[in-house]
Amino acid sequence: QVQVVESGGGLVQAGDSLRLSCVASGGTFATYAMSWFRQAPGKEREFVAAVSWSGGTTDYADVVKGRFTISRDNAKNTVYLQMNSLKPEDTAVYYCAARSSGNYYGSTRVWDYPYWGQGTQVTVSS
């Protein structure tokens, strides 16, 4: 069983930067991919970014490509989401998600992730 805990959310202004962190415990961190999703009020949860087990492969939603960077530190069991040039439409609850062991590469599909954090709120004011 993997437990996932996010941190780093907050209230920022448009154009600002924010870095989210996610610590995973349980299991062997370097054996599964990690991702970030987000959910705005009244909308479905959507894929934001994914990183493979080694950090060597990343994938991004088109709406964040070039502004957000996902990375991981396997020595610290931590995945990060660096968010630059934030926009009001980035406002959402951001969730960190882990695939099960042996799934080394990310997926854009919610149902491919059995382990989820509680979410961290990101609010971008205009």
Query: What is the H/E string?
Result: EEEEEEEEEEE
Q: What is the number of strand segments? A: 11
Strand content: over 45%
Question: Quick one: biggest sheet?
Answer: 7 strands, mixed
> What fraction, in percent, of the residue positions are helical?
under 10%
**Could you say which overall geometry the principal axes of the C-alpha atoms support?**
globular
Structural class from helices and strands? mainly beta
Mean of pLDDT:
96
- Rg result: 13 Å
Number of helices: 0
- Quaternary state of this entry equals single chain
The low-pLDDT segments are none
Through-space gap between termini: 40 Å
Structure, described:
- The chain is mostly beta strands.
- Helices cover 0% and strands 47% of the residues.
- Strands 2, 4, 5, 6, 9, 10 and 11 form a 7-stranded mixed beta sheet that branches. The protein has a 4-stranded antiparallel beta sheet with strand order 1-3-8-7, with no helix packed on it.
- The mean pLDDT is 96.
